[in-house]
Design brief:
heterodimer; A: 116 residues; four-stranded antiparallel beta sheet; globular; B: 115 residues; six-stranded mixed beta sheet
Chain lengths: 116, 115
């Protein structure tokens, strides 16, 4: 079935550095990728929607310059957390709609980001 | 815009007892409804989804849910829970507008199973 591979699964970085998270669709073309953030014991909050070949759409309150999203190809979308701070520590999950009549979504396994 | 409300943040249940996790949605258009399960530090796994047709939907791991349009509800049920069902459960909604519509999640319900 459709698989989205998300890397890294865990990352620890120093405050002020940048971290890149990748999501690859392995056996289907993901023209759209949704990026979510999940704080401990909370729900998934949609951050932004990336579309291959165009600019990402950010949800209200999400800083575009801090969370850089690139959808370079039909199989790769990346989220870069720039100048990370401890408050950016969270669980980040990507999701790609598979489209068609199935109307299914495939989720990555998530990235646990810890900023120290 | 759509929204999802999960009325219970935590539900403690004894093993082998039945359970119902409640979900209500709000939308001005027709929607698709989903239930996902999340185990600690993992991604999401789809339990079941309602797209159209029969209002009673059966999913994996013995779960089922019933779509009730008049009550705008999509409650999740299981007749007999197991310790392994301990996890976080999310109800979610997306609209019919596009096969690439964003999916909105409820706040989640933590199901804890007591032996």
């Amino acid at each position: 079935g459709a698989v989205v591979s998300q890397h890294p699964s865990r990352v620890i970085c120093k405050s002020g550095t940048s971290v890149k998270i990748e999501c690859r669709s392995l056996d289907f073309q993901a023209t759209t990728m949704f990026w979510y953030r999940q704080f401990p014991k909370q729900s998934l909050m949609l951050m932004a929607t990336s579309n291959e070949g165009s600019k990402a759409t950010y949800e209200q309150g999400v800083e575009k310059d801090k969370f850089l999203i690139n959808h370079a190809s039909l199989t790769l979308s990346t989220l870069t957390v720039t100048s990370a701070h401890p408050e950016d520590s969270s669980f980040y999950i990507c999701s790609a709609p598979r489209g068609g009549r199935d109307h299914g979504y495939t989720f990555g396994s998530g990235t646990r980001l810890t900023v120290v | 815009a759509q929204s999802v409300t999960q009325l219970d943040s935590q539900v403690p249940v004894f093993e082998e007892a039945p359970v119902e996790l409640r979900c209500n949605y709000s939308s001005s258009v027709s929607v698709y409804l989903f239930w996902y399960v999340q185990y600690p530090n993992q991604g999401l796994q789809l339990l079941l989804k309602y797209l159209s047709g029969s209002t009673l939907v059966k999913g994996i791991n013995g779960f089922e849910a019933e779509f009730n349009k008049s009550q705008t509800s999509f409650h999740l049920r299981k007749p007999s829970v197991h310790i392994s069902d301990t996890a976080e459960y999310f109800c979610a909604v997306s609209d019919w507008g596009s096969s690439a519509s964003k999916i909105i999640f409820g706040s989640g319900t933590r199901l804890s199973i007591r032996p």
